[in-house]
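Risk register update: the risk of archive-format incompatibility is retired. Evidence:
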Amino acid sequence: MDIALLNPDIQKYINSQIGVDLAKLALQKNPFPEIQWILILNQIAAKSKAKEKLPTYFSSENIIYPSKISVEQTSSEKTALYKSEIVNGETLIDLTGGFGVDCLYFSKRINKVIHCEIDGELSDIVNHNFKQIGIDNVKCFAGDSYEILNNYNQKFDWIYIDPSRRNDQKGKVFMLKDCLPNVPDLLSFYFTKTNNILIKTAPILDISAGLFELTNVKCIHIVAVDNEVKELLWELNAGFIGNTEIKTINISNGEAAFFDFELNSNIESPNLEFPMNFLYEPNNAIMKSGGFDEIGLKYNLGKLHPHSHLYTSENQINFPGRIFEIKKVISYSKQEMKTNLENTKANITTRNFPDSVEEIRKKWKIKEGGSTYCFFTTDPNNDKIVIICNKIK
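Archived output:
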């Protein structure tokens, strides 16, 4: 940690450059030759990223940021707040502390929080920042989290873990055993130190794969922000036996939409219906959950097709997702497309449909945008249809 970054003049300069074009700024002369230019540029880049994602840090003075990539990978304060509402008790240890955003919010609910971070410099940065923010109930330890936890002669109310993949496999399936720490292998050890474990994973992790690797999964929280799934939270309890609960949340515009259900408890399916007056598309947290029958049954909606995951009703209801008023339903045929949609402008979504959005746009010369929304999908008779709508929500 370079304390020279806290020079008041350097801090003032960093604040004055928030949001600027870093590529252009990098070509300019360093106004503070006593410190490396790259370090100052990194602070500007990371703090610019923190403006929306980490408002507590952004608004606090004398915060030191790690690399921009570390800020990009850390939890947002919105998701950290949600995580903090899951835990309770007196003590919590975070085995993969990182930049400390989750610990910041855990510290508001838990009396004593331990932050473990294998990177000594990052641990120093976190410790410094907590002092600037006024957090005094978090202890920071640099080193291997297994050793730190093993040396504690006490049980914690909670263990929190955010395992990282050993190598970057963007877009590919991964298993928890491929991460550090290897939670499946260490689970028995962890349960000697606590009865409650909270694990954060990337949304790309398949839920069934996670359940296969873990035991005692009491609840899985699927957290989305502005309809983008940000993280899966696996809540484990040493004594839990039974069906896992699924909790979905989508945080958007200061509001949260929730939908919960019990995994593997549903024995019914919604009625299949042709499009009526209104169309419903579940938010992405629900889509990730796989609760396609549960959402239809809870809201008493008809489902267009077993594999379309679109729902319909005669009368409008409040729904955790997008809501549309149906204006017209056409068959996906040359004549209908030429008459209704060719050479027009529309927002296109495909669900259980053979052609991609790009193929449809190219084939029928449909420009992107406008107030018309078109769903290319399949109806209960397995016929390909296009539902033309106006968006309500």
